[in-house]
Write a structure and sequence with these properties.
The chain is α+β, with helices and mostly antiparallel strands. 28% of the residues lie in helices and 43% in strands. The protein contains two helices and four strands.
Length: 94
Amino acid sequence: MKKYEAMIVLDTKGKDESIESLVKTVSAEIEKVGGKLDQIDQIGKRKFPYSPRHVESGYFVNYFFQAAPAALDALRSKLQLNENIYQQYYQIRA
């Protein structure tokens, strides 16, 4: 098990779901692939410097968790299918 930090940018434009339910959905996906959540930091809504794909802003959330490297690949693939996830970035924590 390695420690990871994930920066997930949620696309909330025109969505009926609340921010809390979107954050919980990603948390559940992390746990489904065998990850163990350590901490969740909700950074908040930030505007992008330019509007790629007609999205002006996103809601940034940091997830700190432990998982096997294979679980990270499964998580990344699963979240790519979620239309509420705008971007996802991962890095190994020391």
